[in-house]
Automatic annotation (TrEMBL):
Residues 139-173 are annotated as: Disordered. It comes from Tanacetum cinerariifolium. InterPro entries: ARGLU1 (IPR033371). One of its GO terms (cellular component) is mitochondrion. It comes from the Eukaryota. GO terms for molecular function: cadherin binding. This is Uncharacterized protein. Pfam families: ARGLU. Residues 139-152 have a biased composition (Basic and acidic residues).
Length: 173
């Protein structure tokens, strides 16, 4: 009995160890079998073709995605270029409008200045005419006055027979 008690745990441990070895060996064999099956399947022509097909599909999808992205970027660039062109056109039109407006203002200012200059010149001309007329009138009055003065002197001096002759006689009657 003592021997049985000692042997029993040993046997049990031995059985457990053997069972563990069997389980490990079985797991290794199953793993190896699965690995071989996978390699066989992966090595098969059907799997190779499927893999190639999936790779090709993936490449096509990537190419399509890249082309779509490039098209989108191209459209965005065209839209942006058009927007910039329209903006530049609006700025150009605004600038032309401002230039035209400034041109009209300058022309109007020049026209007003020319009219003012003409008005001043006409006023100056009228003033000069008035001065000339006054000088001529003064000269004419002076001439008339001088003629009247000369006529008086001639009358006093008896020239041009404008004075009556007086006779003085000395003698007896």
């Amino acid at each position: 009995m003592v021997l049985g008690r000692i042997l029993m745990p040993c046997l049990r441990r031995q059985q457990e160890a053997e069972l563990k070895l069997v389980e490990e060996e079985t797991a290794k064999r199953v793993e190896e079998a699965i690995r071989k099956k996978v390699e066989e399947r992966l090595g098969s022509e059907e799997i190779k073709l499927e893999t190639e097909r999936q790779l090709e599909d993936g490449r096509k999808k990537v190419a399509i995605d890249i082309i779509a992205q490039l098209e989108k970027e191209k459209e965005d660039a065209i839209i942006e270029a058009r927007r910039k062109e329209e903006q530049a056109e609006r700025e150009k039109e605004e600038l032309e409008r401002l230039v035209e407006q400034n041109k009209r203002r300058i022309e109007e200012a020049q026209r007003r200045e020319a009219m003012e200059q003409q008005r001043r010149e006409e006023e100056r001309y009228r003033e000069l005419e008035e001065l000339q007329r006054q000088k001529e009138e003064a000269l004419l009055r002076k001439k008339q006055q001088e003629e009247e003065e000369r006529a008086k002197q001639q009358k006093l001096l008896g020239k041009n027979k404008s004075r009556p002759k007086l006779s003085f006689a000395l003698g007896s009657k």
